[in-house]
Design goal:
This is Nodulation outer protein NopA of type III secretion pilus subunit. This protein is mainly alpha-helical. It has a domain of 28 residues. The protein has one helix and no strands. The longest helix is centred in the middle third of the chain and has 49 residues. It is rod-shaped.
Length: 51
């Protein structure tokens, strides 16, 4: 029974770690999307100035 409890605790620890990593990945994704959008906007403005 003690092994089951230890296994469950390890599983819960993995779930917590995965949840944290998922949140960090989502945050990075949003940041990259923002940067990409800003760069596209700058490029569009620059292209319009050239024309």
């Amino acid at each position: 029974m003690a092994a089951d409890g230890a296994g469950a605790a390890a599983f819960q620890a993995q779930i917590v770690a995965l949840t944290k990593m998922s949140a960090e990945a989502t945050e990075r994704s949003v940041m990259l999307r923002t940067v990409t959008t800003n760069l596209q906007t700058v490029k569009k403005v620059a292209d319009e100035r050239v024309q």
